[in-house]
Amino acid sequence: MTIPARSRRSRLLLALILGLLARPCFLARRGLLVAATATISQPVHAISGGGKDYASSTLTQSFKGGNYDKKDFSGCVANNLDFTESTFRGCRFYKADLGGSNFEKSDLTGASLEGANLDDVNFDGANLEGAYFTNTILQAKSLKGALFTEALLPADAVQKLCERPDVQASEATRESIPCP
Fold this sequence. Notes:
Elements: H1 3-22, H2 24-40, E1 112-113, E2 132-133, H3 155-162, H4 165-168, H5 171-176
Parallel strand pairs: 1-2
Signal peptide: 1-27
Keywords: Signal
Pfam families: Pentapeptide
C-alpha cells in the first residue's frame, strides 16, 4: 500500500469516527455515561483510609487518649497495651491479637473485631455500638458499662454474654445487648 493510500484510509477512518461522535444518539449515550460516572465518583470512605496504618505490625506504644478513627489494625500484635479513652470509630481489628489490652472508656463505634484475640481485654465503659464481633468477645475480661447497641454479635454468644456477672452488674450493658 502506498503512503497516499494510507493517508486516505486514515482520513476516512477519522471522518467515520467523527461522524459517529456527532450523532445525537451517541451524544445522548455519552451524556448518560458522563452522568453515571459523575455519581460514581463520589468520595468513598474506606475503613483504613486506603493505607496500611497499623496492620500486621507489632505495636508497643500507648494509644491512650488519641483519635484513630478508620485505621486498620488487622493482624497486628498489640498485647497488654493501653487503648483507654481513645476513639477507634470504624477501625478494623480483623484477626488482631489484642490479648490483655485495655479499651476502657474508648469509642469503638462500628469497629470490626472479627476473629480478634480478645483474651483478657477490658472493655469497661466502652462504646461498642454497631461493632462487629465473633465468639471471641466471650473471652473479654470485663464488659461492665459497655454499650452494644446495634452491635453484630453471634446468636450463640448473646445468651452467654447475658449470663456474665459483669454484664449483669450494668443495666445499660444488659439493655444494649439486649438481655432477657
